[in-house]
Specification:
421 residues; alpha+beta; 5-stranded mixed sheet; 11 helices; 68% helix
Length: 421
Amino acid sequence: MTDADRDRRRTAFLARQPYGLLGISALLAVASAGLTPTAAERTAVVVLVVAALALQLCWGRVAARTGPGPGRASVAYYVLRWVIGAALTWLNGFFSFYAAAGCFDAGELLPGRRRARLGLVACSVPLATAQASGLAFRGGQEWLVFAGLLVANNVLLTVVGHVFQQQEEQSLARAATIAELERTNTALQRALDENAALHAQLVVQAREAGVADERRRLAAEIHDTIAQGLTGVIAQLQVVAAAPDPAAARVHLDRATGLARHSLGEARRSVRDLAPVDLAHDALPRALRTTVARWSEQAGVRAEFTLTGTVRELPGGVSATLLRIAQEALANASKHAGASRLGVTLSFMGDEVTLDVRDDGRGFDASAPPGRTGTGGFGLDGMRARAEGVGGVLAVESEPGGGTAVSARVPWARDEPRHEQ
């Protein structure tokens, strides 16, 4: 039940209770007509009941026009009702029920707590009169009894009023608590809605970032597979075109065919799971050894692979990343370095694995590395992005005429050692 509903019920009760108490008093008076022996008294009772009913009807119209709250009209109504109720109670004690109507609405009709208290004291007078109706009031003892009844009624009204006031305060406190909880729940629901919207926005942003990362990764995979393979095929075919010896041309054609087949396998594997085809059946050390040997044969450059430390199982993403970095470094050395010797070292040590690719080529100014070339290669930036993608770092050391060293360091979790090389 809302506060508005409670207020409506309280207002309706206060407006109707004088009618009910007057009706109860009149019925009891009729049933006990013998308590009003004279005709004049009975006539006075009838006149006063009619006056009380007329007063209630008039007050109903006035209250509807003036609205709730104490005022001069409400004070006048309260006093007139008390006078009529006291007179009726003096004639017939059962009319004390009607006189007690002021105990319910004194706080509503009389302004101020002191006046409301005086109204309750006034109501106790007809109540005590009805309770002492059997007394003859011929001596001081009867008046003492009447005074005791007045005190007892006032104490009772005070206690009841205090209890009602506490209940009203508790009701108001509960209503305030409920209202505060409702506001808190509303704010919480608003915050939950905002969090849900923010979460949805973050999901969209994460999806877009994932799509962008996947596009970059796919571009790098295609560059490392198809682009590098086709570059090798073109190089071999250019040699064939310039070779006067059919036997030598045949050798280069076989190499071009092998490169094309290998690139096709890489492309199919990349489309399927984006993992290097060399890692399909071999661990990283063996795949690197095979890659270095193949590159040495194709480039005509002496290349060696060295493995140090105890070989351990690596996550597939780390193995693929290191192999791709090695392939890119070899491709760069083939295209740019003009080296006569190259070394690739894979080292398992502590909590990280390190890949080093060193050549004795022409080198470059490492403080100003070149960006993307016109051929679309990813170069050092692509290798650095790959290393960072698995939590690693890439370092490049080079100087003009002093060769180039590319080093990738990737952390990894400890696992049981493997002896597969």
